[in-house]
Amino acid sequence: MKTKDLIIEEFIKSFGENGFEGTSVDYLAKQVGIKKGSIYTHYSGKNEIFTIACEKILDKCIVAIKQLLEVERDKPLDEQLFILLKTVCLESDFLTADEIAFSKRVAILSSSELLSLVDKLLAKYDNFIDDTVSRIFIDCAKQKMLAEEEITSAISVYRMLLENLYIDSLANQNCNEKLNHLWRYFWKGVCS
Asked: What are the residue boundaries of the HTH tetR-type domain, all occurrences included (predicted)?
């Protein structure tokens, strides 16, 4: 693995354990086996390393979700939506333990500078999720599973479910039962 990649891997691990302030450039250099100044040969500083680490994890999520939905594309549309919800919220098997810890730490950031940066980075992921969910709901309307005029509302409620279940999962709450109950009522409401 290249030094540049090792720095990102060590940052993800350290950030997940210690947060942004607890992850020093000096520590990263020691972990990677280089001098502190050599970090700046690869990156301008911690903010750039943080940005690249976030992008790496978000891109990994997007690729994994695309692959999953490709495998599941022949399943009924409601099952595709349920699988997407369950995967994003509960079964991030495609992320390492360090990447999950990093993601949890990002979710509780307090620095306004970092929050602003994360919001910009999340826009790509959010757009991907919105496009994916929209496509599935449009297909549901074409199959007369819901009225066309209900697509926007269904997408909004689905996104709220997704975001709330994701937040609950970050708190290490067992969300499987909650997901199953919410899904059943959500889908009944969409189809009525």
From this structure: 1-61
Q: Look up the CATH number of the domain holding residue 128.
A: 1.10.357
pTM of the model: 0.88
> Considering the domain boundaries, does residue 48 fall inside one?
no
Using CA atoms, how far apart are residues 32 and 43, in angstroms rounded to an integer? 14
pLDDT category at 109 given cuts 50, 70, 90 is confident
| Phi-psi domain of 19 (left: phi exceeds 0; alpha: psi -120 through 50; beta: other) | left
> Which amino acid is present at 82?
F
pLDDT at 173: 64
Q: Which SS3 state, helix, strand or coil, does residue 75 take?
A: coil
Residues 6+ apart with CB under 8 A from 117: 47, 50, 51, 54
Give the 3-state secondary structure of residue 35.
Answer: coil
